Amino acid sequence: MSDMTFKQDDFKVVGKDLEGSERIVRKSLTYWQDAWMRLKANRMALVGLIIIIIITLMCFLVPLLSEQTFNFQDYDAINEGPSAAHLFGTDELGRDLWVRSWKGGQISLLIAIASTIINVTIGVIYGGISGHFGGKVDIVMMRFIEIIYSVPQLIWLILLRYVLGNGLGVIIFVISITGWGGMARIVRGQVLQLKQMDFVTAARTLGASTPRIMWRHLIPNTMGPIIVNLTFQVPGAVFAEAFLSYLGLGVQPPLASWGLLVNQGTKMLLVHPYQLFFPAFLMCVFMLAFNIVGDGLRDALDPRLRN
Amino acid sequence: MDRSALINVVDLKKHFIVGKNMVLKAVDGITFDIFKGETLGLVGESGCGKSTAGRTIIGLYEATDGEVIFDGQSIQDMDKRERKDFTRRAQMIFQDPYASLNPRMTVTDIVGEGIDIHELYKGEARQQRIYQLLDLVGLNREHANRFPHEFSGGQRQRIGIARALAIEPQFIVCDEPISALDVSIQAQVVNLLQDLQKQFGLTYLFIAHDLSMVRHISDRIAVMYLGAIVELAPSFELYKKPMHPYTEALLSAVPIPDPTVERNRQRIILKGDVPSPINPPPGCKFQARCPKCMEVCKRVTPELKELEPGHFVACHLYDKENQQILQNYTNKQDFAGKTGI
Amino acid sequence: MAERLLTVENLQVCFETYAGEVQAVRDVSFYLDKGETLAIVGESGCGKSVTAQTIMQLIPMPPGKIKGGKVELDNVEISALTDKEMESVRGEQISMIFQDPMTSLNPTMKVGKQIMEVLQKHQDMDKKEAKEKAVEMLRLVGIPKPDKRADQYPHQYSGGMRQRAMIAIALACNPKLLIADEPTTALDVTIQAQIMELMQDLQQKLHTSIILITHDLGVVADVADRIAVMYAGKILESGSLEDIFKNPQHPYTWGLIQSVPRLDKKKRLIPIEGTPPDLIAPPVGCPFAARCQYCMQICKDRFPEKTVVEGNHYVHCWLQHEMAPKVDNPLEKGGNA
User: Fold this and answer.
1) Are C290 and A17 within 8 A, CB to CB?
2) What is the complex's ipTM, to 2 decimals?
3) Cβ of A211 under 8 Å from any chain C Cβ?
4) What's the CA gap between A138 and B155, in Å, rounded?
5) Distance from the B192 Cα atom to the nearest Cα atom in chain C, whole angstroms
6) A71 pLDDT higher than 80
7) Which of C158, C242, C264 to mutate to test the interface with B (most CBs of B within 10 A)?
8) Distances, alpha carbon A299 to alpha carbons A187, A230, B105, B340, in Å
9) Which CATH fold would you assign to the domain A54-73+97-305?
10) Are the Cβ atoms of A28 and B145 closer than 8 angstroms?
11) Is residue B189 within 8 Å of residue B158, measured between CB atoms?
12) Closest chain A residue to C317 measured between Cα atoms?
């Protein structure tokens, strides 16, 4: 214990070091930096993210760079299995399925992303308004959603398709219109909760207007659940499109989409199973990856799990 | 101290309907003045309505009945533009340092929000003003770009104070600003509030349940129970000579950090729990737990009367008819003055 | 004759976080005799709760980790027990009550059943016996109509009653040690007075030893026999009630007493300026150095040795060293005590 020698100098009074005590030692992390770090730590989510990036890139690059277009019909090569020349084989019209699968992915993705953007926008605004105003407005708005949702989404898809006719735009519209309810409910729930928080009350006390409270206080703090829900909307939209196309109500030939390819492949299931397998596999892997990333994001963005 | 009243609260009521035939009478008819430059303490236990009173006075809740008059103008009568002006003059500091700051905004934006809403400063002048405010509350300038979660509770409260001061208010409602803080940090924040009061001539309504701290900071104190004010007096008076049985019990329950005093005290331990403000019975609010409850207390609500200069009490014990009963209690030296002070 | 019940020796606990390792408890030692009430006083983040939970092995490991030290209860090293073995210690030999009675009781289980659970696990009672004992416990803690109340759910109880129920559960098996972690902080002051009175009453009846964790010096003055003052993961000063209140030696203790208002005396509130250190990078020397007006160069370089003031009153402060300047207790001068 006392093998230390003491110098008189040591005992000179130096007083407080308040600046030192108030200094923040840890690095400043924004919400997003912290979330990214947590996401990175989740191996599965990272793998999912990589898969999504790879598939998306392929969907856009392969049709662009490939010598064969998705349309080209080679009557010499009908219903051929996978080979060096045709990685995924060919279909009954001699079209190369490798390019077709990726082109189909391109279309499916476009539809999914476009409709997701639309229905997120509608959902956020609708839910934001409903939650913010509360009371009768909220009750009416929520009942409206419930009424719409009492009819299953797939039935809506079919009905609207019959009413509105054909075309990619229609498909996108139809999928958007039936998908926004979930997002609206989530945003509404979040907003209702946030409304009670003191920082919102403080903003009101300072004289903040309703739009200001909505855009600066309520929505930014809802971003977490919005993003998570958004991530789940994409595979939902892919599936909705696939369903429509499978019924022949979606994308029409000669265009391709994953759903359409699966439709065509099913007819050949017993004879040429590979024609169903490849597009179905791509679609499933893509949707699975999105779901895994969605789960990872949910954990990463949850402020309560922040360390 | 300027004795002109900045705020007159007249028979203020705030009721909430919480179910079929269930009315929560959070604030049930309170009347008092707040004088310019003073700190009025508002104390009571959970459910007494002090927080609701504070928020109704500042206009966050619409009063069910009664009036709040701010500097001669009734808040209830203000139109939208006047209301916005009013927010410049009356501000609030909140209890929960974790919930009162938007976790996605930097300190600069939080403190500057009022400045932005009322368009007081722009650009460089705005930045300078924000630095000035941070200095005022004892925060480093380098903290300006950080987020709330990086700060301790005490520091967050200081950010909240800077935010309230940014628009130069006259009156601040402090809603339990120190309850969630550590003991030594409470003293920091209270001292800061007092310094700011001296510097800017602020008027405070200080709402809290920690009586020791309220006594320390307040000039006058109002004691609330189930939505009503039971006693209102200058701080020193209240502690030296509590007149309402609830006040006596409340003071007696507060532990004193000195073993010699604490272990030799005579304590009044109230029986039962703090009752619910939903559908309260007629008569005095305190009847269920009052050790001195009489028949009249169960039928007639006592009025808040000025029994000595500046000292108001709402209790039937002080009615002329009950003088003998009061005398008996005083003679027995039962409770009056027995808070060990 | 004082009989030793609990010994905590050189306890070190840390937590793994994304930002690094947080040293929550740094070399903490204290003891508790049978029948005593020890108050551990400190502010948030000082490690008092972590210490208490480590005694009961309630800290999830990971991210927690006991880096060193041991805990002995009645001469048994409980820190070396496995989780399974600890299960028979918890509830029966050591119990804990928490700050928030709302979240500490199971909302979907009747209160009586929650008491019975403890009894049936540790004391091998059958259902009927356990039910009787549960009702008796509720009566003991002052809950009116205990037989009816035993069949109710926590949400039907008021805050004060829930805290009483929690005490009933904790004391059902008559444990040797009760750890009360800020038991009255969330309660109204009149209810707080009731609960403190109840705890003292029960201690007398059941001869339980109590560790009381709190930041409220008033509560401490009321019920504690001895006090340990914690700061930034270390105990800075420890002694009897009289020692700490009448003859405190550490500047932090002075600071604490000076910053607390008193109902009976109007005095200047002298806050402790600054903020406690972040325990991810705890300071090498005395953790209070940055906030201490008497801080000396040596305080920054080395953690002070233990100095015995008198009897079991000791303090860790370089001001005690013979080479240090003499500093008067500011509480005596200003009459702030």
Assistant:
1) yes
2) 0.85
3) no
4) 37
5) 10
6) no
7) C264
8) 18, 15, 22, 55
9) MetI-like fold (1.10.3720)
10) yes
11) yes
12) A11
